[in-house]
Amino acid sequence: MKSITILIADDEPEIADLIELHLEKEGYRCVKVANGQEAISAIQTHSIDLAILDIMMPILNGYEATRQIRAEYHLPIIFLSAKTTDLDKITGLVSGADDYVTKPFNPMELVARVNAQLRRSTQFNQPKQAGKLTLEAGGVVIYPEARTVFVYGKPIELTPKEFDILYLLASYPKKVYSAENIFQQVWGDAYYEGSNTVMVHIRTLRKKLGEDDHKNKLIKTVWGVGYTFNG
């Protein structure tokens, strides 16, 4: 069985060591680096299954490291940061992170979030319906196994969570999902301050789908209820 490798990128050795200690107790292998540039190099040279990135790192911060990682890789990314405002969290999620944990943190909560992200990543990388290689609706073509999306023939780049949300909604067109439903199914976690997280991801997903350029609104808001795929 393949061992799971977690990247820990933090310029505070005490924090990186603490995270490593708890993750290794769970059976994970860890790779530790001290800045964003080293994080990118580690992902290029190791088989990394999930990355935990501090935001305020030297040489290359977590935001920019995530943007560069997202250009080539689809692994889950968790931000770990002392930046605690709602705007900080939204900025982190929009830049491509799948989760955001604030310092000081409970190591066991972080481990639980790592487990949840890995569980969701594994689930969404498996085909949901045997023999169904694509989903097509409303000008959108989704290839679940390759995790690629085309809109009117043009490929678009989505973060793992944006892809998971789109795939969930498009798998059951016209079905209305509440923010809580989406959060629980995509994040695989208890609904905890998830409403803004889902809203931010839906907003950026709509922009990437080009809804401003097309009359057809692919993701429809059902006021007071939730969201549905309108393909």
UniProtKB/TrEMBL annotation:
Record flagged with keyword Protein biosynthesis: no
Domain OmpR/PhoB-type: 132-231
Residue numbers bearing the 4-aspartylphosphate modification: D54
Response regulatory domain segment(s): 5-118
Presence of keyword DNA-binding: yes
Alphabetic keyword roster: DNA-binding, Phosphoprotein, Transcription, Transcription regulation, Two-component regulatory system
Feature: DNA-binding region: 132-231
Identification of the protein by name: Response regulator
Species this chain originates from: Paenibacillus phytorum
